Amino acid sequence: MPSPTYALFRNAILGERQVTCVYEGRYRELCPHIIGTNKRGEEAVLAWQFAGESSGQLPQWRCLKLANVSGARVRDGDWHEGRSHKTSQTCVTNIDLDINVDVRKVR
């Protein structure tokens, strides 16, 4: 059964809504794009971080292990899609939901 954090991120993808949270001690503002599990079976999300705190430049793609996320909240705001990948993503190996495939086609 998915964690409450997983459900929050999954619903945010379906509704194209922003998520704010703390990850690795830093406040993040994100638009999640792909959710599922990583190669170790841990819940993971690939998100476009457009604001908040970071050790590198923003905006950029982030791979988050959901067990390490705290204080996650969904909020309204502009949807940020980020730049295209130059390589295939390896963050989420068992994809449950991908906004580019599962959500956008349905509309």
TrEMBL record:
Which organism does this sequence originate in?
A: Bradyrhizobium daqingense
Q: What is the name listed in the Swiss-Prot or TrEMBL entry for this protein?
A: WYL domain-containing protein
